Amino acid sequence: MKIWVDADACPAVIKDIVYKAAVRRQLMVTLVANSAFRIPKSPFIAFLRVPAGPDEADNAIVDRLEAGDLVISGDIPLAARVVEKGGLALNPRGEVYSEENIAERLSTRDFLDTLRSSGVETGGPPALSKRDRQLFANSLDRIVSRK
Q1: Cβ(87)–Cβ(64) under 8 Å?
Q2: Taking a C-beta distance cutoff of 8 angstroms, is the pair 47, 18 a contact?
Q3: Exposure b/e, 45-55, CB count within 10 A at least 16 = b
């Protein structure tokens, strides 16, 4: 199992949890983004810079993804593509996207997007809480323990 991180929008605290898990479990993690940032020096952590533009990071991840790989992302359309290709998707709040729930999540996301484009203010998600971080760490640990 490889871990791919949709890194542009991934909170730093979530990246830190992923870094620690990668080193502890000796799993390859690749952060994909269109802007450079520092990553820890480790043979298990890599960075892939992609051109700026919509879906560039998503496309790079899906192109390289193998069945059974894990993608960390809050991007539901990306998660749908990952699940369709046989991968696992985990959002920064610890929710695992699966064949059983991805269609519903995608439908809700599209509905809210339609509301926003028609001028309705739907608000954004709440700030990442300590509980969210713990849920993420627990979900990540369960997933990588199965490898």
Answers
A1: no
A2: no
A3: beeebbeeeee
What pLDDT does 43 receive?
97
Q: Residue 56: which residues within 8 A CB-CB, separation 6 or more?
A: 34, 50
Say what the pTM is. Answer: 0.87
User: CA-to-CA distance for 24 and 6, rounded, in angstroms?
Assistant: 21
Please identify every stretch of the chain with a pLDDT value under 50, giving residue numbers as ranges: none
pLDDT tens for 94-132 read 999 998 888 777 877 677 677 778 887 777 677 899 999
**R_g of the chain, CA atoms, integer Å:** 15
Q: For residue 132, what is the enclosing H or E element?
A: helix 130-145
Beta-carbon contacts of residue 13 (< 8 Å; ≥ 6 apart): 128, 133
- What is the CA 86 to chain-centroid distance, rounded? 15
